[in-house]
Automatic annotation (TrEMBL):
Family under the similarity heading: Belongs to the leucine-binding protein family.
One Pfam family it belongs to: Peripla_BP_6
Keywords noted in UniProt: Signal
Keyword Signal: yes
Name of the protein: ABC transporter substrate-binding protein
Length: 404
């Protein structure tokens, strides 16, 4: 982690004060136990490209947990070793080899699904646990040493699909637009499974656009025209970051103001501030059409764990936490519990065994636990883009599904 990010995380010590830290750590201990032997944890994230922003979030979330817990996991002073995952299987393999060469007790992170699939065999062979905090392709099955604190990639589509199946009126017309690639296919498959593969409200086959993470101002024009020729009242899409921003801009510029439905990645992060002029009229009201998204987290969830986490995150980084930061915070929390169970001199194999015994996690997203495939059994929430005060935000509407 950069020295600047580390300093920002440590600001929490002053920002929360002694009382705040005690609440955050959830302990009433009056004596500080003797620290165990120092350990190293490897954090894998992209340093460049479209995934860099997510990489920053997962690094911030993990470091925040450490700052709130005396820079320890399971009672052991902890050093985080960060490496660049790149954007392919080869670069991911190099990152894992680097960390194994430094004798890390466990690994976490990974943003890119291609990287995650590519390092699977190396992680299993090394028998060092990896707590994935973002990338989670459905094809990652029958693993022993890979656990995930995020989601399985078909789940956000499945949650939203099942909700819309129940709520969209008979005779509605819904088009599907997404970039080419296996991740899109996973999301689309989940959505159609949840909605109903033969439901007549879905009009035509999915329309696929370029997978360019930084598309130009007119890059989606032909596909948007094709979608609008079907006269949809709503569009289900799967984009994030710059591509998501461009898709919404180009869709609204085409003078279509119907409802947009998507996994929450579409509006996660700072994208809503950048889209304000596109979505808001001069009189400070939203233009016609809603944007509704499904995600496993919302920064305004009203539970004690989230109040502590979101408050500390905002004080430390001056932004609201994303699902990426939350999942990495939970990865640190999971490791904290497992390492404590593994004893005074933990080995990677002992930590991996302990991961299966930690039970329910008191998470900012709400309570969850690992299921048999080592992914979370968790709630999914519907969020709607609307004003929260003067800020355009992803406002929590209600719980729509429990998956996993």
């Amino acid at each position: 982690m950069s020295q600047m990010n580390r300093r920002r995380a440590l600001q929490l010590l002053a920002a929360l004060g002694t009382t705040g830290l005690a609440a955050a750590c959830g302990t009433d201990d009056t004596e500080t136990p003797t620290p165990g032997t120092p350990i190293k944890i490897g954090l894998i994230r992209p340093e460049n490209g479209d995934g860099k922003t997510i990489g920053i979030d997962i690094e911030n979330g993990f470091q925040l947990f450490l700052a709130m817990n005396g820079q320890q996991l399971g009672g052991h002073p902890t050093t985080v070793v960060t490496v660049d995952e790149g954007d392919n299987a080869k670069s991911g393999q190099a990152a894992v080899d680097n960390l194994l060469g430094q004798n890390v007790l466990a690994m976490t992170g990974v943003v890119n699904s291609t990287v995650m699939s590519g390092i699977r065999d190396a992680v299993e062979k090394a028998r060092v646990p990896l707590i994935g905090s973002n990338a989670s392709p459905p094809s990652l099955q029958s693993v022993v040493y890979i656990w995930r604190t995020s989601y399985v990639l078909d789940e956000p589509g499945r949650a939203l699909g099942s909700y819309l199946r129940r709520t969209l009126p008979t005779g509605s017309r819904l088009a599907i637009v997404a970039p080419e690639g296996t991740a899109s296919q996973d999301v689309i498959n989940g959505f159609r499974d949840g909605f109903g593969t033969d439901d007549p409200r879905i009009i035509g086959d999915p329309i696929l656009t370029t997978a360019n993470p930084t598309p130009g101002d007119d890059e989606f024009g032909a596909q948007i025209s094709e979608a609008l020729s079907r006269q949809p009242e709503g569009i289900f899409c799967f984009y994030s970051g710059t591509a998501g921003e461009q898709f919404i801009r180009q869709l609204r510029r085409s003078r279509w103001f119907g409802d947009i439905y998507a996994p929450g990645f579409l509006t996660e992060g700072n994208i809503l501030a950048d889209l304000r002029s596109t979505l808001v009229n001069a009189d400070e009201s939203l233009k016609a059409g809603t944007i509704q998204t499904a995600l496993n987290y919302s920064a305004d969830l009203n539970n004690n764990a989230n109040r502590v986490f979101a408050s500390a995150y905002r004080k430390t980084y001056n932004v609201s936490p994303t699902t990426y930061a939350m999942a990495s915070y939970d990865a640190a929390q999971v490791l904290d519990k497992a390492i404590r169970l593994a004893g005074a001199e933990p080995t990677p194999q002992q930590v991996n065994l302990a991961l299966g015994k930690i039970g329910q996690i008191d998470s900012p997203r709400g309570p969850w636990q690992f299921n048999q495939p080592r992914t979370p059994q968790q709630k999914w929430y519907l969020r709607k883009v609307q004003f929260d005060g003067r800020l355009l935000s992803n406002v929590l509407i209600n719980e729509i599904a429990t998956l996993g």
